[in-house]
């Protein structure tokens, strides 16, 4: 049986990011991103069960419009 290597999708092509990936992508700390995701009206959080993911496009848009985070 031939085992194929795991496909690596570049961050800029992913639809959702883990908190760690979002932190690396944006240079914003993990704790700050987690706090943003806990905000009641957060537009870029996606819950998959109890796991929190970051919607990349919405996260980028949020960063574009904010002066202070």
**Uncertain stretches of 5 or more adjacent residues:** none
The main β sheet shows up as: 3 strands, antiparallel
Q: What strand order characterises the main sheet?
A: 1-3-2
Helix content: 25-40%
| H-E string | EHHEEH
The SS-based structural class is alpha+beta
Q: What's the total helix number?
A: 3
Mean pLDDT over the residues: 93
Kindly report how far apart the N and C termini lie: 50 Å
What is the molecular shape?
elongated
Q: What's the total number of strands?
A: 3
Strand content: 15-25%
- Rg from C-alpha positions? 14 Å
Task: Give the helix/strand layout.
Blueprint (H helix, E strand, L loop, with lengths): L15 E2 L1 H8 L3 H8 L7 E4 L2 E5 H10 L4
Antiparallel strand pairs: 1-3, 2-3
The gist of it:
This protein is an alpha+beta fold. It is 38% helix and 16% strand.
Write out key terms for the chains shown.
69 residues, elongated
Describe the structure.
- The protein is elongated.
- The longest helix is centred in the last third of the chain and has 10 residues, at 56-65.
- The mean pLDDT is 93.
- It is 38% helix and 16% strand.
- The chain is built from 3 helices and 3 strands, in the order βααββα.
- A 3-stranded antiparallel sheet has the order 1-3-2.
- The protein has 69 residues and is an alpha+beta fold.
